[in-house]
Amino acid sequence: MATMTNGEAGSMKIPKIKFTKLFINGEFVDSLSGKTFETIDPRTGEVITTVAEGQKEDVDLAVKAAREAFDHGKWPRMSGFERGRIMMKFADLIDENIEEIAILDTLNAGKLLHLGKILDIPQAANTLRYYAGAADKIHGKTLKLSQQMQGYTLLEPIGVVGHIIPWNFPSSMFAMKVGPALAAGCTMILKPAEQTPLSALYYAHLAKLAGIPDGVLNVVNGFGSTAGAAISSHMDIDKVSFTGSTEVGRIVMQAAATSNLKVVSLELGGKSPIIIFDDADLEKAVDLALMGILFNKGEICVAGSRVYVQEGIYDAFVKRAAEKAKTWVVGDPFDPSSQQGPQVDKNQFNKILSYIEQGKKEGATLLTGGKAVGEKGYYIEPTIFTDVNEDNLIVKDEIFGPVMSLMKFKTVEEAIERANKTRYGLAAGIVTNNLNIANTVSRSIRAGVIWVNCYFAFDRDCPYGGYKMSGFGRDLGMEALEKYLQTKAVVTPIHNSPWL
């Protein structure tokens, strides 16, 4: 089975945690109640530090600062070019502190340190650069009206934005939300997940150093039921962008509707299919499918948790997938030889193990894995089930862990039908060398992003979001800017003009 490494964290110097308070109006402050909560190291289950616990009154303060900065401050009134220059400086400061930020995400979320340093943190900086470059390219249109009027549209910042981000990609999600909102000229309050507040606070510090004016970016740590609820229902927030579970997405949307009908965008759960056809290269297909479920220990909304393999290569695929899964190294995320760190916290760890037990009860065959690894921390073996059907909970529900359901299909039509038999629609993978199959299937699956002969092919220029109960609105790409802009039409009469 997967092995547990001891890692090198014991000999590695962990930097002192510098920022544990709330960041409101350009200052680190205690919560008004004085409450704090513990943030936990998932490698051991031990406390890293305590951070300030923001509640409704702290959200009110942050929103007041953001509202003042939007209504009377210079950020929305700067040229896009000037906002972009400051955002570029922000990105440069992130690059200068990659090591320390990556350590924070490893400590807080159990993410692999070496991937944080080469992927997550650099990508966060580059996402900010992408939107910095877009900040002076936000244009309206001139309208050709049918009467003696002239018209044009203005794209204006939507106002004060509330960002509620998840724990699985703390840095990436920070940049994906904050980048386009800053470029648009919005001000904002961001609530990081209670499991992973440390890097968001560090980014707030760097934003201040970069010259982002006070009140433009506020960070309030806290829990969804208090701080998150206060953001969703706040009468002076103009838009909420939420990434997380479908269940909480419903609550956010209800709160927005019953308060001031604020605009909402939701990036929610997924149960993404990977469809592997007979003509696929077996080794590449196995590697892609394993990466699709084991990357970031399966804690990723687009995890390829439903793998459909055509009958001609199914038996060979099952054998090879089991062999490779058993060599997968589960261990300390500070150890560069580890391929999978711990699940983010005890609740998630127990949830995943309970789904594995449910899969056994429903009659699925446990091909490999299925158990916890080690005596401490929240590590779980790579787990593959076969002999599952579409009615099994492990096929229907988002598990958010390293658990794959492996299934056989015969025809293209069957694969499409079964891939779409889900309440989610976030992503899908197709593995084939047949262009006609790739085109047909990619156009037939109801999901927001389709990866052909690749997976997790995220790019800051490629929009990302879901169909059905995976939410609506798009992150990344120029489409993400639309979430933070209002369209205003201006019409005036024209007299004696030779042109309409």
Helix and strand topology:
Elements: E1 3-5, E2 22-24, E3 27-29, E4 36-41, E5 46-52, H1 56-71, H2 80-96, H3 98-109, H4 113-134, E6 142-143, E7 149-157, E8 160-164, H5 170-184, E9 187-191, H6 198-210, E10 217-219, H7 224-233, E11 239-243, H8 246-258, E12 263-267, E13 273-276, H9 282-294, E14 306-310, H10 311-326, E15 329-331, H11 346-361, E16 365-368, E17 372-373, E18 379-380, E19 383-386, H12 393-396, E20 403-409, H13 412-419, E21 427-431, H14 435-444, E22 449-452, E23 471-472, H15 479-482, E24 485-493
Parallel strand pairs: 1-15, 8-9, 8-11, 9-10, 11-12, 13-14, 13-21, 14-20, 19-20, 21-22
Antiparallel strand pairs: 2-3, 4-5, 6-7, 7-24, 12-23, 16-19, 17-18
Helix pairs in contact: 1-7, 2-4, 2-5, 2-6, 3-4, 4-5, 7-8, 9-10
Structure write-up:
The protein has 15 helices and 24 strands. It is α/β, with parallel strands linked by helices and 500 residues long. It has 2 domains: 22-268 and 471-477, Aldehyde Dehydrogenase, Chain A, domain 1, CATH 3.40.605.10; 273-452, Aldehyde Dehydrogenase, Chain A, domain 2. The strands form 7 sheets. Strands 16-19-20-14-13-21-22 form a 7-stranded mixed sheet, sandwiched between helices. It has a 6-stranded mixed sheet with strand order 10-9-8-11-12-23, with helices on both faces. Strands 6-7-24 form a 3-stranded antiparallel sheet, with no helix packed on it. It has helices at 56-71, 80-96, 98-109, 113-134, 170-184, 198-210, 224-233, 246-258, 282-294, 311-326, 346-361, 393-396, 412-419, 435-444, 479-482; strands at residues 3-5, 22-24, 27-29, 36-41, 46-52, 142-143, 149-157, 160-164, 187-191, 217-219, 239-243, 263-267, 273-276, 306-310, 329-331, 365-368, 372-373, 379-380, 383-386, 403-409, 427-431, 449-452, 471-472, 485-493.
